[in-house]
Automatic annotation (TrEMBL):
Homodimer. CDD domains: AsnRS_cyto_like_N (cd04323), AsxRS_core (cd00776). Residues 135-434 form the Aminoacyl-transfer RNA synthetases class-II family profile domain. GO terms for molecular function: asparagine-tRNA ligase activity; ATP binding; catalytic activity, acting on a protein; nucleic acid binding; transferase activity. GO terms for biological process: asparaginyl-tRNA aminoacylation. It is found in: Cytoplasm. This is Asparagine--tRNA ligase. Its EC number is 6.1.1.22. Pfam families: tRNA-synt_2, tRNA_anti-codon. It comes from Paenibacillus lutrae. GO terms for cellular component: cytoplasm. Keywords: Aminoacyl-tRNA synthetase, ATP-binding, Cytoplasm, Ligase, Nucleotide-binding, Protein biosynthesis. Signal peptide: none annotated. It comes from the Bacteria.
């Protein structure tokens, strides 16, 4: 009777010390020293070194190991042992190699490659240790986001991706035909989430959004993911408290669960350890005064660009809220400050280290008459937005919400230079492949 083999992943070998296990994996790299081969293996869950000693294995096993090329696939069987010098803390002493495929001429070699080359081969570049680390952290951020809201009584609601109108003007929207009607790919689910909040109290959405913005900066993607909570009976102040607790929770979860991946990226973990609520707050007025004093020619009433946000963020070790922007540069649905109607009850959260705005939020207008006025000012179609007006007509309440851009958040937490590495297959101004 044949013995049943024990299968494992690289991540789980810690549970099999002293045992023989079989792992399905790929060769990441290898080196040879005389009659010993050192195989660097990966299986998606992690990396481990497997050692093949010629005097300890049959000749065919040694030959199989010799044939292996970068990204060749195999089932490898070996004994797990602890190895303090290894990053994983474990090593595999090889007993058997079953080759699945010998890869020929793998295009991404250990040498340096240009960005365009790597982006053209994004489907393969994902296998690199650095890219894997980013995607593992992204997945953990997503889990932390959902856990935060699920544990606090929020309901997940999915707004439509195809919409008949925009929440912030149609300039940067992708237009398509919806049979005989015009439609757009959503740039935000917020208006629909307001309707959901009137039914369910506290809600959040998590899905793709699209901006037809011809921007090539390191902070912009054409397709990206947004988390958009909306909360009935919640004012601007309470919303800010939720936001800072939310970001603290996400960052601390990643620190707890993904320390090895952060180290792979060379991230300065000490900077992330400081991300604990509460966060500093300054008003738009104070931000303008600061910029002018620092030598920026910045008139009151304009929106901040990347250099301005970076200059402000450099003052702080934590994210900073900039509150009370001028009414004229913010969306039509934001509630004016009752004590100063020329500014609105809103805030942008600016991440440290030059990563820019990661959250934008506000208290929403709940006065039907004021919303009517805003519609006229912004020349919005009453017909297209009648359902949105109904939210103020039938049981209006104070409510607030915000939106977090996932990819900018991933870039900040990982310490990445460009958002193109934060999503598996980025959609950029001149890139739709692969």
């Amino acid at each position: 009777m044949s013995e049943t083999k024990t299968t494992s992943t690289i991540h789980e070998v810690k549970n099999h010390v002293g045992q023989s296990v079989t792992i399905g994996c790929w060769l990441n790299n290898k080196r040879k020293s005389g009659k010993i081969q050192f195989l660097q293996l990966r299986d998606g869950t992690g990396f481990i070194q497997a050692v093949v000693v010629k005097s300890e294995v049959p000749e065919e096993v040694w030959e199989s190991a010799t044939k292996l090329t970068q990204e060749s696939s195999m089932y490898i069987t070996g004994s797990v042992r602890e190895e303090p010098r290894s990053k994983s803390g474990f090593e595999l002493t090889v007993e058997h190699v079953e080759i699945i495929q010998i890869t020929q001429d793998y295009p991404i070699t250990p040498k340096e490659h240009g960005v365009d080359f790597l982006m053209d081969h994004r489907h393969l570049w994902l296998r690199a240790p650095r890219q894997r680390a980013v995607l593992v952290i992204r997945a953990e951020i997503i889990r932390a986001i959902q856990q935060f809201f699920d544990d606090r009584g929020f309901q997940l609601v999915d707004p439509p991706i195809l919409t008949p109108s925009s929440c912030e003007g149609t300039t940067n929207l992708f237009h398509t035909k919806y049979f005989d009607e015009d439609a757009y790919l959503t740039q935000s689910g917020q208006l629909y989430m307001e309707a959901a909040a009137m039914a369910l109290g506290k809600v959040y959405s998590f899905g793709p959004t699209f901006r037809a913005e011809k921007s090539k900066t390191r902070r912009h993607l054409i397709e990206f993911w947004m988390i958009e909570p909306e909360m009935a009976f919640v004012d601007h102040e309470e919303s800010l408290r939720v936001q800072e607790q939310f970001i603290s929770h996400v960052v601390q979860t990643v620190l707890n669960k993904c320390r090895a991946e952060l180290e792979t990226l060379g991230r300065d973990i000490s900077k992330l350890e400081k991300i604990q609520a509460p966060f500093p707050r300054i008003t738009y007025d104070e931000a303008v005064e600061f910029l002018q004093a620092a030598g920026h020619e910045f008139p009151w009433g304009e929106d901040f660009g990347a250099p301005h946000e970076t200059a402000i963020a450099e003052k702080y070790e934590k994210p900073v809220f900039i509150t009370h922007y001028p009414t004229g540069i913010k969306a039509f649905y934001m509630k004016p400050d009752p004590n100063r109607p020329e500014v609105v009850l809103c805030a942008d959260m600016i991440a440290p280290e030059g990563y820019g705005e990661i959250i934008g939020g506000s208290q929403r207008i709940d006065d039907p008459q004021l919303m009517e006025e805003r519609f006229k000012e912004h020349e919005l179609s009453s017909e297209a937005y009648q359902w949105y007006m109904d939210l103020r007509k039938y049981g209006t309440v104070p409510h607030s919400g915000f939106g977090l851009g996932l990819e900018r958040t991933v870039a900040w937490i990982c310490g990445l230079e460009h958002v193109r590495e934060t999503i598996p297959f980025p959609r950029l101004l001149y890139r739709l492949y692969p």
